[in-house]
Amino acid sequence: MRYEFEHVLPADIESRSFAIIEEELTRMGRHLKEDEAPVIMRAIHTTADFDYADNLVFSPDAVRLGREALRAGARIVTDTRMALAGINKKRLEALGGEALCFMGDADVALAAKKRGSTRAAASMEKAARLYGNQAGDEKPLIFAIGNAPTALVSLYELIGKGALAPALIIAAPVGFVNVVPAKEQILSLKNVPYIVARGRKGGSGVAAAICNALLYTI
Amino acid sequence: MRYEFEHVLPADIESRSFAIIEEELTRMGRHLKEDEAPVIMRAIHTTADFDYADNLVFSPDAVRLGREALRAGARIVTDTRMALAGINKKRLEALGGEALCFMGDADVALAAKKRGSTRAAASMEKAARLYGNQAGDEKPLIFAIGNAPTALVSLYELIGKGALAPALIIAAPVGFVNVVPAKEQILSLKNVPYIVARGRKGGSGVAAAICNALLYTI
After folding, report:
1. Nearest CB to B8: which of A10, A21, A177?
2. In the annotation, is B45 catalytic?
3. What residues of A are in contact with residue B199 (Cβ under 8 Å)?
4. What is the distance in angstroms between the Cα of A87 and the nearest Cα belonging to chain B?
5. Is the complex ipTM higher than 0.90?
6. How does strand A98-101 pair with strand B98-101?
């Protein structure tokens, strides 16, 4: 048996993939907003799941504000080592930014154990302590959450008590327990830009893809 | 507005998630084979995408053979740093195994450039050179491919010419260009155990989840 391969140069695979995604969206009758299209298409590119054409919810101007934050040398804090691995650090660092994940830190594990919370929640508290409103830090802060709904709950609480004012929250945990309400809480925020993968779907790959979509269109 | 959160202890979130997945599969009338169930359910857990109940194709005894390889201290070679980050190295190393990704290696980049191939293909050739049939290495070799169809094409060729005899191929690249035929080629292999995410879907998270499903059920 022979298999039908397309002859595409390595350097052209990504643009060919995006052309196919665009074709299929058109065939589905989906017309994406110009600013949101690169983000949605990269999430589809990462998952081959066209549900992301419907799932991704953007607060007004989220894409522009996210890009501005990155241009200003944003710190991206994520809740998984996989998302950390997936974010294009070269691009990020060229803009003066950095990507951080505190999930493996001993103090985070200890804090979570002490309080019976999760390491993800303790990670967000550590981010607030280091770079939040009290820290006198001038760099914008982006959260890219790909796994833990408890990270989102923690962010919601920290924002509520004025400890954090993120430049953008990318809310893309995946899962079956408390993922949906944790995302809905983020969607209820009035003064914080967000990109939310509504529903159960998401993941570290999606969170990283959204960061990269913003980085690649600067 | 109030959001409905379930009260689940951090340590119980995963088992509660699996119970929900099982319920929904039952409601869908899907009955998974006993050996395949933990792998399929963990892929769904990682993506919230029930398509994996239909997508994942196992060669006979693939799960048992994969576990045996891991118990014997297998090396897992992957094509992405994200999958590398997602594999539970603690469990793997406790069995005497290790996880490797050559994608960032300078010699791999050079070899790919020289031949106009991809770094993923060159990574597989490096794995064959280091740990293949000519290398006199006794550890079983598992490939966990989450991104590049060219990695699968390269594995197919290396197996064809007798340079490699993997204990298991986890074939889960995601995408739109040559992903489907590259997976079909792996499905045509007669003497190599495989777990293939048939179709376009997959990803680093899925590849890592399949590794972890095997590790967690040893």
Report:
1. A177
2. yes
3. 48
4. 9
5. yes
6. unpaired
Is residue A149 predicted with pLDDT exceeding 90? Answer: yes
Residue B1, pLDDT above cutoff 60:
no
3-state helix, strand, coil in chain B (%, to 5): 50, 10, 40
List strands edge to edge, sheet with B56-58: B56-58, B194-197, B168-171, B141-145, B75-78, B98-101
Cβ within 8 Å, pair B184-A3 = yes
pTM of the model: 0.95
Of A88-97, A133-142, B17-26, which range is least confident?
Answer: A133-142
Dihedral sign from CA coordinates of B80, B82, B88, B89: positive
- Residue pair B38/B217 in contact (Cβ under 8 Å)? The answer is yes
Of A17, A81, A179, the CB nearest to B85: A81
Catalytically annotated residue among A17, A22, A45, A89 = A45
Q: What is the pLDDT of residue B3?
A: 82
Question: Does the beta-carbon distance from B176 to A45 stay under 8 Å?
Answer: yes
Residue of B nearest to A117 (CA): B10
Distance of alpha carbon A200 from alpha carbon A205, whole angstroms: 14
- For tokens 């400890």, the residue is A163
From the candidates B17, B45, B58, B133, give the one annotated as an active-site residue: B45
Q: Is B217 exposed, middle or buried (0-12, 13-18, 19+ CB in 10 A)?
A: middle
What CA–CA distance (Å, rounded) separates A214 from A90? Answer: 14
pLDDT tier at B23, thresholds 50, 70, 90: very high
Residue B2: pLDDT band (50, 70, 90) is low
- Reference B140, options B132, B152, B129; nearest CA is B132
Provide the pLDDT for residue A2.
66
